[in-house]
Amino acid sequence: MAAAAARITAVDTYDIRFPTSRELDGSDAMNPDPDYSAAYLVLRTDAEDALEGHGFSFTIGRGNDVQVAAINALRPHVIGRPVAELCADPASLYRVLVGDSQLRWLGPEKGVMHMAIGAVVNAVWDLAAKRAGKPLWRLLADATPEWLVSQVDFRYLTDALTPDQAIELLQRGRSGLAEREARLLHQGYPGYTTSPGWLGYSDEKLTRLAHQALAEGFTQIKLKVGADLADDIRRCRAARNAVGPDIRLAIDANQRWNVAEAITWTKALAEFDPYWIEEPTSPDDVLGHAAIRTGVAPIKVATGEHVQNRIVFKQLLQAGSIDVLQLDAARVGGVNENLAILLLAARFGVPVCPHAGGVGLCELVQHLSMFDYLALSGSTEDRVIEYVDHLHEHFLDPVTIERGHYRAPRAPGFSAQMLPESIARFSYPDGDFWAADLARTEGTRP
User: Fold this and answer.
1) Active site residue 355
2) Using one digit for the tens of pLDDT, what is the confidence trace for 273-295?
């Protein structure tokens, strides 16, 4: 069909799960046995170019079926939409999805439904970038400040950030963009790795992977903490001995502690010079984070991967609760809401160091950080993207790391597209892997 008349014809969904719990990959004090999973969708059209939009929500196993059901609930809002209009204005769909009053009641703008909205919206951006022939970071960086601001929902934000202030930030951010793009293409964007630090790993594996991280050019690693203080002291000592005094060592409690406990525990680890303490308490506890930040200074406080929307991020910034903002590409309502969060961070002068790892999160979030560097913050100082060496082989355009830096993606789109064979093998419960696994399990039962 001619491009001008093309419409969305299908929203196909898949429950994709990987058995990462069997090697304790991803294990931490709150989540001891995650099976990294993706509630995955493909937007299909009747356009002659046959381009598709791919998106997903990240989960850690059981409950992925609930997330898929939430995406399916949004299908009536998407089918039949004109492709050209949708790609020219993704905010038009974002507002409709957020505004469905009966589904909004389940949030509002939080939890499973909001993550589903993010998956659909991100798939639209993937399609828009493919149709433009650009990687998403470049599509965003090339856009005018006025158009970018038109993509942001400022409801509940204007006490901290107005559209005029956002336009001013973006106009100022464009100065020197061409020079920064050349630098980005040459050097990449700095990353740090969590791969050595999973809680279920032995000290020997931690040490080996920390040495490997140094050899690969990373200048920051991260360890999971929070289950047992004596174990944390031992593991932090092993990590610090492995990397020496000049490499940043971040620690991550994954929401394990109460406020007073977070302060006491973090101080007990201060001898190992942690750069930040991540998710020390509930992601919803704005004032608790502020108290922890005061109590553990000069150790920085970082959070964001479970912060449910732009409004909570606004409050964290207003209350001076965080030193580092860790947005997530798949937790909130997609690119549109993450634009708002990046603008808020720029307004308050707080560096953004995104959460990644999981299934495909590294692939997505690199685009947001690269846009931020090129067209908003203008800096990579004290800014790094998390990297975890898991499951990249299942993506058509996987991340590339060189000398501890993310290389800028060149392929059009949002880097969200999984390989068809991976979808077929790891779809749950009928994919090749899971069907064979279930048959094997049933065959061993008495």
Assistant:
1) yes
2) 999 999 999 999 999 999 999 99
